[in-house]
Amino acid sequence: MIRIQSIASALFVAVAIALVPVSAQADGDPLRIVLTNDDGFETHNIQALFNALQAAGHDVIMSAPYGNQSGTSAAVDFLQPMLPTSEPSEGGLLPPGSFPIGETTIAPDQYYAAGKPVAAVLYGIDVLAQARWGSKPDLVLSGPNDGNNVGLVTTGSGTVGATVTALNKGIPAIALSADDDEELAAEVIADLTVELVEELNHNGRIALPPLTGLNVNFPPIDGETQTADDFRFKMTKIGTASNIGVVFYENLGDGILAQIFGIPPDIGLPGVGVEAADDRLGPPPVDVGHPVDDDPRSEWNALAAGDVVTVSVIDSTYEAGLLKKFKVRRALRHLVH
Q: N or C: which end of the chain has fewer CB within 10 A?
């Protein structure tokens, strides 16, 4: 008797083969791209990518948050008007009191929204793209984030939240996350991203199935000694392997990383802390509760090679795979039809 898992694997392979584009070479047609992130429009990473995409001939609109919105996932402030800003922009280039949406900020075609990443990407899709092209963009790129979004961390990522928002608008989208936001490394990351985009660009369309995107992570990069040629792309999975985890503290000051970021040990107030979840970042101070994941295909584990850019396929919803559906249906066989 053929095992269900074997059948599911065969189906996956058959679908994957069917989805491979006929041409293996991108034709270089210009794309209409909305670029966003969750760190703000002034980061080295997003600025370098904006410039690289324009240099590659693409028509790019940046629509990013006014300030850092890390960890906001796909949060939305429903029916709450945006107000003028109360603080300077993240990089300090715009003053408090700025209008909640910005018509060209520090360069042509660069805009901001004083809200969460979902609001910023929707501003780009629903307003800016319509005004410029009269249609949706061909592609949304979110990032590159300052910090990797791997494994279980992805569910809380504003970078990924903006990506999924675009997918649910029917637009191909890619989440991009780097080890940091260092200026020279940003140039290499931008070159690698352009390479990825060009590989997916077929006749001016992105060769991804409907409602399907990518979660891409870059390893640490020495921008002084390394170039894009020093790295390779690898198909991976999100899995559960991750570099950090979240923990609730009755006293937020008990968290080691909270103290590093200036939270007093004796603050005496509760809150959610972020802690190391892997020995590569030092001995985990607390158990963050992540399941063990030694699979070399999982993103965080694959990044350990040092020269790998991980590429994981993501869906626009929480829909489970065929094998998991079969197991749940079997468990509920006396209840569901």
A: N
